[in-house]
TrEMBL record:
This is Vasohibin-like protein. GO terms for cellular component: cytoplasm. The gene is vasl. InterPro entries: VASH1 (IPR028131). Pfam families: Vasohibin.
Amino acid sequence: MSDYVPFLTSKSGFPINAETWKSMFDFCLKQNSDCKKQITDLYESSQENVISKKPLPVFRVDKIETAENFLNKVQNYLNSLEYNYTGMQFFQVNRGASIIRLGELVKTIMLASLPIKCLEATILAIFLTQGQEYLKRFTMSFVSEFNGNVFRHVVLGIYSSSGSFGALGLSRRENLMYKPLNFPSLSLLINNYTEAYHGHYHKLLRVKIGLPISHRPYMLEKIPWKGVVIPFNKGYTKKDINNILDQYSRFIHSKQQKNNKILPIEK
């Protein structure tokens, strides 16, 4: 594989310092050399000219509403922050941090209201759905390959008490993010993403589906990112993959989770 770098991550905190701004614009120029004049003009503009004038997005929930309406509001809020195309991820996300610690990051994301990438959107979606116990949440992480480069993507899978699956998230591609509760099985949901990847000429290498995320986490509890791993490049047939997904689907909506563990399936 090549040494492809998909984006940079800001480590300066807020307000963003001059060095980070320069790194972002330099990276943007490298990735978009055909737009050199527009990028240079923007970088050299005064701060007053580049500050957004639009109001901060607000997330409100009605006490009584359907799961479909609620999830649509969550996704609309994620969309209002917009996907981050700048080449600089503004927030450092520690995937190994406790859920409670990540809650502090979510407050910063909502206060800053800057564009976000898929990982930040997934963390934000977890907290916006917290307490809605009729929804079971689990992460779905994808690894794909295109032109020798490896790409990683993550969304938040949703299982409703009505028996339907869907997902929340953000992506550069509209068909790799939000999925309404229209899928009667997990295998149909994953197959929908698989077809989308193929449509973008990506070779899907593997999908990792996490364990259900607690609505009432204890102090040091972390997001359980790994429940089952499905390698698409190890010779499994579509029937084999669907069988694995259907088995895991039954685990997700089961009320009993023995030791809260399931062995990952890998070859």
